[in-house]
């Protein structure tokens, strides 16, 4: 994988570039739809490609490891062959999922013991086998195994957590460098910068990860309960250290405002369950604000779902009809909401790219932040 930085501009850290992977090129800034179990909930890959214009999707190591399991995925020839998505795939290491299990997981120097949320069976993730699992999944970009501390962690906890993450990273890198891809194409590994909301720890973490000279780097442990201003200041601290000629991936973030503010601070890649999860529950993000389509005010609104939208669902269906689908608990409502939101998120990062190229990003961003924050 390689990254080409194409556009920068004064007055902002925002940049536009291009990622080259074995399964295609990705223009940045980019949003990656989350396909936890190998599917983006309720959305066909044809629609993801042709309507949403998704360029890369996520898979999750924890969920895919539990089912269908590595034996099935390896026999299929990797996740690309198994699910039929022929574009790039990034896999989360599963660390966030394991650590969110609470009482049914236990951390040690070796790794994380956990019980399956499906059947209670016991398993162990180590830095080594998480690399092996992601090799088997066949992702173009695989993530290092880390601990994600809660947003309200005190300094001592965050420090111990970071030190464990750093020791695990060294083992991840060693395992990655001594193994080969299984399916005949290159894979790359991104280290993850942790350290809570503490600048001293984040600086230490960023300096540690860049010492491995990888193809890209991730910023983890944000949008986990900390204040938004702490998120933004942490991004600024980390991006002062991360190389300018490598992609920067902000994990699990976030709202349209979060994404715009992070782009302004030099982030290139994003993922979040918010567009699909909120879409399934009737919350629509649009270029003019947020719509709760379940509200009675839309009952007799026969205008398009989103006149400015880029998806076919925005113009084919009315707000009144979509509200009816949610009231009737019809699964098509959730599908329309998900497709609309994903298309909006991809439009948002694509438009940010165009504004960066045109030199007008800062002015546009300031207007958009106000628009996408309001409730319609």
In terms of topology, how is this protein built?
Blueprint: E1 2-8, E2 15-21, E3 24-28, E4 30-32, H1 45-52, E5 57-60, H2 61-66, H3 70-76, H4 79-83, E6 89-92, H5 95-99, E7 105-107, E8 112-115, E9 122-125, H6 127-137, E10 141-143, H7 155-177, E11 188-190, E12 192-193, H8 199-210, E13 217-219, H9 228-239, E14 248-250, H10 256-264, E15 269-271, H11 274-280, E16 283-286, E17 289-292, H12 312-316, H13 319-327, H14 331-358, H15 361-373
Any overview of this molecule?
- The mean pLDDT is 96.
- Helix 7 packs parallel to helix 8, helix 11 packs antiparallel against helix 14 and helix 14 packs antiparallel against helix 15.
- The chain is α/β, with parallel strands linked by helices and 376 residues long.
- It has 15 helices and 17 strands.
- The strands form 5 sheets. Strands 4-15-14-13-12 form a 5-stranded parallel β-sheet.
Tell me briefly what this model is.
With 376 residues, the chain is of the alpha/beta class.
Please report the distance between the alpha carbons of the first and last residues: 42 Å
- Biggest sheet descriptor: 5 strands, parallel
Shape: globular
Beta-strand portion reads: 15-25%
The total of helices stands at 15
Radius of gyration: 20 Å
Structural class: alpha/beta
Number of β-strand runs:
17
Average of per-residue pLDDT values: 96
Q: Which strand order do you get reading across the main beta sheet?
A: 4-15-14-13-12
Helix content, binned percent: 40-55%
List segments where confidence is low: pLDDT < 50 over at least 5 consecutive residues: none
């Amino acid at each position: 994988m390689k990254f080409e930085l194409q556009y920068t501009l004064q007055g902002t850290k925002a940049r536009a570039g291009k990622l080259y992977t074995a399964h295609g090129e990705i223009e940045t800034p980019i949003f990656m739809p989350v396909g936890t179990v190998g599917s983006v909930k309720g959305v066909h890959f044809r629609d993801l490609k042709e309507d949403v214009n998704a360029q890369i999707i996520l898979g999750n190591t924890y969920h895919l490891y539990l089912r269908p399991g590595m034996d099935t995925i390896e026999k299929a020839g990797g996740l690309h062959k198994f699910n039929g998505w022929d574009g790039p795939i990034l896999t989360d290491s599963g660390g966030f999922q394991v650590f969110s299990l609470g009482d049914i997981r236990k951390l040690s120097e070796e790794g994380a013991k956990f019980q399956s949320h499906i059947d209670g069976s016991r398993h162990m993730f180590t830095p080594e086998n998480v690399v092996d699992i992601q090799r088997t999944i066949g992702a173009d970009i695989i993530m290092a195994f880390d601990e994600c501390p809660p947003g309200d962690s005190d300094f001592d906890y965050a420090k111990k957590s970071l030190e464990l993450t750093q020791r695990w990273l060294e083992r991840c890198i060693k395992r990655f460098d001594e193994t080969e891809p299984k399916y005949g194409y290159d894979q790359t590994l991104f280290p993850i910068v942790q350290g809570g909301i503490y600048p001293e720890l984040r600086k230490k973490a960023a300096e540690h990860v860049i010492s491995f000279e990888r193809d890209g780097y991730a910023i983890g442990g944000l949008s986990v309960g900390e204040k938004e201003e702490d998120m933004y200041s942490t991004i600024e601290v980390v991006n002062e250290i991360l190389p300018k000629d490598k992609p920067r991936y902000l994990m699990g973030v976030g709202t349209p405002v979060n994404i715009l503010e992070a782009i302004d601070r030099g982030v290139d890649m994003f993922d979040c369950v918010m567009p699909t999860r909120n879409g399934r529950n009737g919350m629509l993000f649009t270029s003019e604000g947020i719509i709760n389509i379940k509200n009675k005010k839309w009952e007799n609104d026969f205008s398009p779902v989103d006149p400015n939208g880029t998806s076919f669902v925005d113009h084919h269906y009315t707000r009144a009809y979509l509200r009816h689908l949610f009231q009737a608990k019809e699964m098509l409502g959730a599908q329309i909401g998900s497709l609309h939101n994903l298309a909006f998120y991809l439009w948002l990062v694509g438009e940010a790219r165009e504004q960066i190229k045109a030199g007008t990003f800062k002015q546009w961003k300031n207007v958009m932040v106000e628009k996408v924050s309001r409730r319609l």
